[in-house]
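Posting for a labmate who doesn't have an account.
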Amino acid sequence: MNNRQSFAQVDVGSGDMEPKHCRHRRKLLLFLSMTVAMLCLTVFTFGSVMDCDPCDAAPLAPGASRSVRAAHTFRHRKQLWDESEVKNDYLENEESTEYVDSEEDILYSEERESSGENDVLATPKVSSSISGPSNKADKYTHHTENGTRKLPNVIIIGVKKGGTRALLEYIRLHPDVRGVGPETHFFDRHYNRGLDWYRNQMPPTLNGQFTIEKTPSYFITREVPRRIYDMSKHMKLMVVVRDPVTRAISDYAQTASKRKGLRTFEEMAFLSNSSGLVDTAWSAIKIGAYAKHLKRWLQYFPLSQICFISGENLIADPAAEMRKVQDFLGLKRIITEKHFYFNETKGFPCLMKAEGSGNPHCLGKTKGRTHPHIKARVIERLREFYRPFNMRFYQMSGHNFHWP
């Protein structure tokens, strides 16, 4: 009887005389393994989707189903925002009127000629190499009669049309800050000239004074965070940001003032009028995805070394923003409300007196341009596009700028 029971529990068809309970156990293990594999695949796929840049469902032509619309939007955004596809227009076309703030530098150069400050831009000795220790500030110094030219310890890295010129002019009111006027573009255009060249672009400073420069293109240039870190891992960084929709319109207004016959803002902002898909390849749109650019900077610098300034508050309440900046730099609060007055004509705050002068000073004529009229539906569509990027930027920076 025992022998019958024993043979009855054997799977004769298996060929290896495997007991049934072992076969069932093997099937169960196989099933569990496949289940775990499928679960891992699902998690990996979902994680990849969540890790991509924020996507919003852009409307396609009428009649497109929701599934087709979602798939089309995802493929479009994934392709355009792939990290390997992001290019820096500053590097590819230095003469691009969309990027080069030539008016600003020309106006500042004229001011320098009249004030006799051109010694700051004396012809430098070009360094043959920029490799070496991670912090080269002590090595690259140059003594002059008015002080010592040093590598900057504060850099305004962006963003274009955010208010970087205003921030530089305001902070230079402080006696413990010296800044170079023209944008040096060292880390994105002239890196091969070496740190000795870069240092010679800086104004002479005394012991205890900060040296500051500003080049807004740094914020969006992929190679710059590492290059600045290689120079000084203790660098203090400042970023002026504003509502990305308003910033894009201001960017367009600057370009339109230089280029006749330019297409309308709406034509440049969207791939086509019928699809409603935002053209993320257009530089004016790309800059406003602040979270994407900030992600690269946070790989090298902690938030404690980055100061985020509101471009809107820099206009509405410049003294309050400058208090924040002075605290960030560890400076005495010298720049206050008494340094500003609001110019009704320009619609911007001006300085009661400029650096090295007792006369009132407003920013150049290129600041405060009249923006073109943009349809409400266009603005709302762009706000929907930027909203997930803004939310992520708020989380990453630790600041809520309350953009619409």
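Reply:
Got it, the structure tokens are right above this. The beta strands are 141-144, 147-150, 154-158, 177-179, 204-205, 210-214, 236-241, 306-310, 340-343, 348-351.
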